[in-house]
Sequence to fold (314 residues):
Amino acid sequence: MNEIELLREWDADAPPLTDTARARARFRLHQAMQAPAAAPAAVGRRQLLRISVACAAAAAVTATVVVARNTGEGAPSTQTVSANTVLRGAAAEALRLEKPLAPRDDQFIYTKEVIERTPVSGGPGKTYVDESWSSVDGSKKSYVSELGHTQWVPPAQKGQYSWPPAEWSKLERLPLDPRRLTITLRESGTKPDFGRPTRADEWPMVQIFLSGLLRAPVLPKGLRSAAFEALAAVPGVQVLPGRTDVDGRAAVGVRYVGGPAGGPWASGGRVLLFDATSYQYLGLRERVTAGGKSYDQYQHVTAQGVVDRVLQRP
Fold:
């Protein structure tokens, strides 16, 4: 089936994909563009129209803001907070909180994610609780849920690409040095040139890969921290003070505004939320469209772990 036939069959009312699913699709397309002679990987019709490859130069607009912080001693004090500060703080917090895992190839990664949607035009919202079981080495069928829709996903076939990698062993091979991680993602599919500076037009794709990696609920030891550190160096990352998470906790937001005009990051619509004090990652806010309606969406992982079989919980 060619791309035109896929487009004809695409369901326009299908709910939008999560960031991870979008990143997987972009990664497949990016790989196909780099190696046009290779057989193209299959792309599902729900993914096809949501693929958007960032190709314009990133704007160097990393912002610094003044945040009011109540010390309990009279008037609130102020302190300067940059996106760099928030993301490096998140990296340190990720290292402090992470529980090292060593899953066996025959096991499954369990995740539980809560997604809350509220219509922009008003009215009652809806909450989805998505539980998924992903094969550690990709050799077994995985059982995944997205916006309440569950399905079995067959093992990866030769020539298929995914981002983040489905196999734990591939995640373990990613560099833990932030700079080397950036260059490895920048030149995915080719031998990294660690001596070459990253060009302006390469930063949007780097950001796509880093954001997709950070959306993975479970990562090898040190990799999440390295990804936060790498994201801190991306031009076009901006900090937003005075945010709250779904439970009303004080938060600061970080968004990417370095993408091309009209791209999904151009308006800075997606915001990563971090605890205003510790900078612990809390979740993601964004505005999405489904069925002709716009929704404000908040999603966050509430549980994760390693289990021996599908439908088992940690």
